[in-house]
Specification:
The complex is a heterodimer. By secondary structure, chain A is an all-alpha fold. Chain A contains 22 helices and two strands. The chains are: A mainly alpha, B alpha/beta.
């Protein structure tokens, strides 16, 4: 108890509070610039943690991550340009809603969902990190295979009617995901001898090209006289700029489900917030009362990926605090800062030196609150920033998108890739291919391939398939759940095919 | 409004990229007269990045000029190293180097530099132990016991290491081959995945460097060290050299520049790095990151790298891992 109070007092000092506020503001602003991910921004902070009191630096880093996740959704909604990959799924419903003039409502939904997801996973981290980590550590390659299959099956369940375009889009994404070094043998694949492609196509240049640059191309096609119009209009009606109590209540089941998805994904190292956001989006749509609204500005479609990607940020610390295993880059950076300060995360930290852990917990909760308050102030500012004519806004988008693609690793090649994908994205939406499915294929395929091939090696080194499955209890449970889900989805498909017209646009429209 | 937005963005990007033109001086003045960039070929936050940033901060004070760190990751660290090799040899673009991209990777891929001729090796500052680990509750108490199990059960011992075809991977393959052991290598990316795989029971043996936390907690135990020197504090843990394996690579961290650096640049950095490695704060950081401070000057470092390149190539060929 004493340790808890001491920890809380560490994070409540004036300096720590200041660190949190500065972190949130920086995070929201940097997050809303495409290409500048939270991880990059925080990496730049690491050297300062040599100088700073750790109880300024570490809360500041935590706050920055939280701020940037919200910040990155602002351009996703208003400009179709996710500030970081985690906000890619938010584009699907956020941008259409903003086009209706309800950008204010969309941003309020994001803020509410973000803070909800954050708080949910922080509480899970505080109350159950030990238990959650003990389960999460049991997830190996074979379990990851099943998880990706879950995601793919729930994707199929969204697909009403025949959609060869959807299949083409997913396979194209998978193919692009194959570029780079083979994950098992380490030989170069589809790189055409270019060392820049050894690590595969960068997610950030691809996302920016696919979403932002393709939108710039689409705008180029518009008649000249529309140029002086504003790119985006905001409705003046108050109900279009806020989230009513009834709407919040209605979102609650989606928020809870998505936060759980995010927390579980975050506790498993290596999956990340982008994956969580897409899985949560699919789940929200699968279980929606009015799935037909998805892709056209559904509040559930905005809230689900936002709650999930924020929930990842807290849950990422679960394997870190339990075993010293960082769940993603963000957690790795925090691990680095902690090590430099002489704190080694892991079970021993709770026993020998628990104050810093409790200080981290209370700093996280505090950062949520600050994130909400700063967000409320930032929304009207962001709305005014984009309220300019198209001929000013879209060139600016082009410039910042290029800078963002370049900044990732200081590579002009990435800028070229961004334009290539901009062109592909534009052509795809012209010919009504669902671009979002390509993204999902691109993100999931490498995880599936690597895990599946690792699993084959594992099976090969056991006494046969059956013995392998028996040796992994979590795998047995997951296989059971997968079978049930598959049956449900097939029945749903059959009944939909019987009662609804065929919808050739397939999943999520040209999105 | 646009003005404000632009101002905010420009300010933010200045802060981020550290664009500070005030220090830009004339080039013929005494070195260093303008900001120096150190390229780190790895992602921010890793060991190499943290060491370089620790060095940059102190070098900035010693040299009286800005020392910027730029992460240029990709291509198994070869893109960043390549950009250093191609830079103008004026001492204003230098880079962090470690064993793998210099000694090992060029044997497997065409890389955009020749490690033995295109780089000036300024100084080595840290050597990192790279042990063979098993789970804390593992039934194997020594490396010999582990090998005995693997020999009796061919193809059953599952193991992994942080980088495919990196020095630790190749050295361990060579060791297992010499012992006549057939093991199942499960390819993984980064020490995070290896540690998770080890603790979760996916693999039985891991070869990785970021082990301090789990070791202190008793989650893992050390069985061997892949390098030539015993790990500090663990004199009884055998090394690959003691056991007579073909490769016992030293995992070194150092600083390099393009070939043809002027002598005054080389001397400036030799003394700067020497001073830094002797400082208490750098030694503290090194201990926390599980390294050993072992300074080598330009001449000794370059000789070491060149002989490592030779011996690795030869070993790979005799082992049949590499043709030619």
């Amino acid at each position: 108890m004493e340790a808890i109070l001491e920890g809380i007092s560490l994070s409540l000092s004036v300096n720590a509070l200041l660190g949190i506020i500065v972190g949130v503001v920086l995070g929201q602003v940097l997050g809303s610039i495409p290409g500048l991910t939270a991880a990059m921004a925080v990496a730049l902070l690491v050297p300062f943690s040599f100088y700073f009191d750790p109880w300024v630096g570490i809360p500041m880093m935590l706050a920055m991550f939280k701020g940037s996740l919200f910040g990155s959704s602002i351009p996703a909604i208003l400009l179709r340009t996710p500030g970081t990959p985690a906000a890619a799924a938010t584009v699907i419903d956020g941008y259409p809603l903003a086009k209706e003039g309800k950008g204010g409502k969309a941003l309020r939904t994001v803020l509410f969902a973000s803070v909800f997801g954050d708080a949910f996973s922080d509480i899970c981290l505080i109350l159950g990190s030990g238990a959650l980590a003990a389960i999460a550590i049991r997830f190996g390659p074979s379990e990851y295979v099943i998880l990706v299959l879950f995601a793919l099956i729930s994707l199929v369940s969204l697909n009403r009617g025949s959609s060869w375009r959807g299949i083409v889009a997913i396979l194209a994404g998978v193919l692009i995901g194959c570029i780079g070094l083979d994950p098992i043998s380490g030989t170069a694949r589809l790189t055409f001898g270019n060392a820049e492609l050894f690590d595969g196509v960068g997610l950030i240049p691809m996302l920016i090209g696919f979403l932002a640059i393709s939108e710039v191309f689409t705008q180029l096609e518009q008649p000249l006289k529309t140029l002086s119009q504003r790119a985006i209009e905001f409705s003046k009606r108050p109900e279009d700029n806020k989230l009513s109590r009834e709407e919040r209540r209605e979102l609650l089941p989606t928020l809870l489900r998505s936060s759980m998805i995010g927390t579980v994904t975050g506790a498993l190292p290596g999956l990340g917030s982008t994956v969580a956001a897409f899985i949560a989006y699919n789940e929200a749509r699968r279980t929606a009362k009015r799935p037909e609204e998805f892709g056209k500005g559904s509040l559930h479609g905005i809230a689900a990926p936002e709650a999930a990607n924020n929930a990842v940020s807290g849950a990422n610390l679960i394997p870190l605090l339990a075993f010293g295993i960082p769940g993603d880059v963000a957690a790795a950076l925090i691990l680095g800062a902690l090590l430099i300060q002489g704190i080694t995360p892991g079970p021993l930290a709770f026993r020998d030196n628990p104050e810093p852990i409790y200080a981290i917990f209370s700093a996280m909760l505090l950062a949520n609150l600050v994130n909400y308050l700063v967000g409320i102030a930032y929304i009207p500012l962001a709305k005014r920033l984009v309220s300019v004519s198209k001929r000013l806004l879209f060139p600016a988008v082009l410039v910042f998108a290029s800078a963002g693609a370049y900044a990732m690793r200081g590579s002009l090649f990435d800028v070229q890739m961004m334009f290539v994908f901009g062109l592909i994205g534009w052509l795809m939406s012209k010919f009504k291919f669902p671009t979002v499915l390509l993204l999902i294929g691109f993100i999931l395929a490498p995880i599936l391939e690597r895990s599946a091939r690792q699993t084959l090696i594992l099976i090969d080194s056991s006494d046969g398939l059956l013995a392998f499955v028996q040796s992994r209890p979590v795998l047995m449970i997951l296989l059971g759940v997968l079978a049930v889900l598959a049956v449900l989805v097939i029945r749903q498909q059959i009944s939909m095919r019987r009662f609804t017209d065929q919808d050739d646009d397939g999943v999520m429209g040209p999105g | 409004m646009t003005k404000i937005r632009f101002a905010v963005l420009i300010l933010a990007s200045c802060a981020l990229f550290g664009c500070d033109n005030a220090n830009e001086g004339s080039t013929d003045a005494k070195y260093p007269s303008r900001p120096i960039t150190i390229v780190v070929p790895y992602a921010p936050g890793g060991g190499g990045d943290t060491f370089t940033r620790a060095i940059a901060i102190q070098a900035q004070e010693i040299l009286g000029t800005k020392v910027l760190v730029e992460n240029r990751m990709g291509g198994g660290a070869t893109i960043g190293v390549g950009s250093v090799a191609r830079a103008k040899p004026d001492g204003y673009t230098l880079g962090f180097v470690s064993s793998s991209p210099v000694v090992v990777v060029p044997n497997f891929f065409e890389v955009p530099y020749d490690a033995s001729t295109d780089l000036t090796y300024l100084s080595r500052f840290v050597v990192s132990p790279y042990p063979v680990l098993v789970r804390g509750d593992s039934s194997y108490d020594s490396f010999d016991e582990l090998l005995a199990y693997a020999r009796e059960n061919p193809g059953r011992l599952r193991w992994s290491t942080a980088g495919i075809n990196g020095a630790p991977h190749i050295a361990t393959e060579a060791a297992l081959k010499q012992e006549g052991v057939e093991a199942a290598f499960v390819p993984m990316q980064g020490s995070t995945e290896v540690l998770a795989g080890l603790l979760g029971g996916t693999i039985d043996m891991g070869v990785m460097s970021d082990y301090a936390g789990p070791l202190a907690a008793g989650d893992v135990r050390l069985l061997a060290e892949i390098g030539p020197e015993p790990i500090e504090g663990f004199p009884d843990i055998p090394t690959y050299r003691e056991m007579g394996y073909p490769l016992a690579p030293t995992i070194f961290f150092g600083m390099a520049g393009p070939a043809g650096l002027p002598d005054d640049v080389i001397q400036t950095w030799e003394t700067t790095i020497k001073t830094i490695t002797e400082s208490e704060s750098f030694q503290e950081v090194t201990v926390r990151l599980n390294g050993n401070v072992t300074y080598l000057d330009h001449e000794a470092f370059e000789a070491l790298v060149l002989s490592d390149i030779e011996s690795t190539k030869k070993a790979l060929q005799t082992l049949g891992i590499l043709e030619k």
